[in-house]
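Please decode residue identities from the backbone states below.
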């Protein structure tokens, strides 16, 4: 940016790079297109980082996470919730770091993800590598996806998804379909497939459609964000449970980011490419805050949900 002032996207008619928090009541930060400098660089090589990793992951944080998950499972058993996503923040001490080298490692490790490094002097430094598209839209034609279910990739075994992950994925797909009812036409839902992101596998279902005349980009974003993949169902009850029980501010984790209303130089159309901010971390001084979470359903087992967050945290620790 050409100065350190903070701009916001309020109507979603603005143009630039957006960085939006999980909480829809908080403002989405915007790097305005007409105030930004654009730099293109060819990245070829990567060197090893000499970093010391000291993990502040003690038994108390494990017990706390398991208790929250157990509380969520109880609420689901009482039919108050269908699903809720419980997350936590893990702190990693780093002796030193180089922004470009970490970014290069993310690019190399997560070839199929949207990889970013984002900095604002008044907000902070964030890195991420997310496999989940919130929305891609050109004119009125859009693409989105449901992404849920996680398991560690194992090249020697056939991929088998259990009922818990399959149900979780179907809940997200059904939510998107219902949310788009009335604001989109020509809706098409692809078959569910398995994708790989780093050392993890996920279930993904692609959805395409056309925005109708009574809706706009802001309407579409508000319909989709936050999805059950990062929040839960029903959305309002899940959000309340998260805010009451997680006891920390997610900030931009499980928010969304990307290009907002950028003109395509070839087609002259206006495009937006937005991604859910998963697999991310914030750097403050010599400490990296790594954010991880998992979807809780009636079939969840609290200790296994903890183990899943441990596996997910490794995806970001690998670049430190």
């Amino acid at each position: 940016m050409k100065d350190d002032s903070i701009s916001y996207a309020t109507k979603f008619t603005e143009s630039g790079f957006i960085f939006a928090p999980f909480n829809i009541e908080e403002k989405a930060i915007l790097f305005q297109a007409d105030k930004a400098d654009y730099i293109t660089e060819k990245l070829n090589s990567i060197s090893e980082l000499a970093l010391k990793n000291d993990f502040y992951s003690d038994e108390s944080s494990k017990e706390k996470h398991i208790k929250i998950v157990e509380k969520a499972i109880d609420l689901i058993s009482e039919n108050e919730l269908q699903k809720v996503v419980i997350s936590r923040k893990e702190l990693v001490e780093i002796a030193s770091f180089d922004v470009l080298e970490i970014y290069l490692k993310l690019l190399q490790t997560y070839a199929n993800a949207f990889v970013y490094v984002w900095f604002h002097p008044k907000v902070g430094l964030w890195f991420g590598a997310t496999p989940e598209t919130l929305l891609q839209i050109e004119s009125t034609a859009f693409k989105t996806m449901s992404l849920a279910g996680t398991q560690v990739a194992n090249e020697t075994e056939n991929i088998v998804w259990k009922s818990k992950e399959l149900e979780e994925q179907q809940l997200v797909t059904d939510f998107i379909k219902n949310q788009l009812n009335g604001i989109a036409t020509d809706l098409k839902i692809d078959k569910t497939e398995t994708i790989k992101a780093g050392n993890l596998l996920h279930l993904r279902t692609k959805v395409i459609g056309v925005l109708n005349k009574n809706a706009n980009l802001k309407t579409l974003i508000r319909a989709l964000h936050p999805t059950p993949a990062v929040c839960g169902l029903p959305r309002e009850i899940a959000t309340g449970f998260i805010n009451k029980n997680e006891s920390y501010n997610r900030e931009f984790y499980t928010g969304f980011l990307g290009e907002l209303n950028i003109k395509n130089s070839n087609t002259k159309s206006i495009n937006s490419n937005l991604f859910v901010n998963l697999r991310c971390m914030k750097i403050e001084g010599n400490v990296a805050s790594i954010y991880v979470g998992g979807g809780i359903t009636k079939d969840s087992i609290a200790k296994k949900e903890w183990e899943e967050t441990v596996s997910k945290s490794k995806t970001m620790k690998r670049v430190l």
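Observation: The chain has six helices and 17 strands.
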